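I have been asked to look over a protein record a colleague put together. This is what I was given:
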Amino acid sequence: MNVKMFGEICDAFGPSGFEEDVIRTVAKYCKGLELENDAMNNLYARMPGEDPEKPVVMLDAHTDECGFMVQSIRENGSLEILMLGGVILTNLPAHTVMIRTRSGKLVRGIISSKPIHFMNEAERASQSLSIETLIVDVGAVSRKEVTEVFGISIGDPAVPEVSFSYDEERDLCFGKAFDNRAGCACIIDTMTRLCGEKDQLAVRVTGAFAAQEEVGTRGATVTSQIVRPDLAIVFEGSPSDDFYFSAAQTQGHMRGGVQIRRMDKSYISNPVFIEYAEELAKKFGIPFQETVRRGGSTNAGKISLTAKAVPVLVLGVPSRYVHTHYNFCAKSDLEAAADLAVEVIRGLDAEKIRHICRQDILK
């Protein structure tokens, strides 16, 4: 796994609906692949010269990150915001964001809530927050300064201000937006490794980098219609749970290998596809862990409903503190996810595809 590539994708500015910088960064590392994008900021990557008669495996990952939008500008120069994606409000105060103006300029702001010095007793006791009471301070003193000097307008997007770093000694990645720039990196790594052997594969491989997952898996609704896959692999930067449950209960342990998702609120996984993937993981010594999620969703929910139904394998990279400013993940888990996807695709043949698609039930 190219850590430099992963870091640049993580650092790219890309909240839901504003993923242009991400797709340009992804495209930079898709050398040798045929690329196209659509009006929603979905990006498609294909291997040139593939046999159009072969079945299609779609590799999915979403490009957008949780972020914010300027909802209004107050007379005193503070900004009211809306959330793009699901963020716990108590994680936000005192953190910085970067706002992108319509000219493309990035402006730093501090998310602020009412200071304790100005709270009454009831407010101090509750410590409750609402998005309506949070503001972003860019250091202005008036609405006029915000609009004319800083160039900020309502509707401008914002993301956490965090820079990627990698600790090679501890195999530790730090940064923002691992949900789901981890998946984007896995698509690039998988396709780069398989491109030279495309003629020997039983399938065509299409990478679909989907927009707007964090606001309702919207991009995958489009990409699945365009690609019309026979099978799909969804990569996710999945929430690591190893700090919240016992060792026996944890299902998303950092440095525990790729996470194979059996169920969440959007999709009940195809057990035959999972059985095939886990056999390969054991054969090639790829560490993996299983999860049954009580909540959460991925693009698998939308992709699986395409045409006559698509079997989807959901592979997660356990990432700590997703949907907050700061994330950790292990490079070894990124590599395990890509390694398993590579072996799954290499091992496919007509009989296995038929079996995964349950076409051998009625005999």
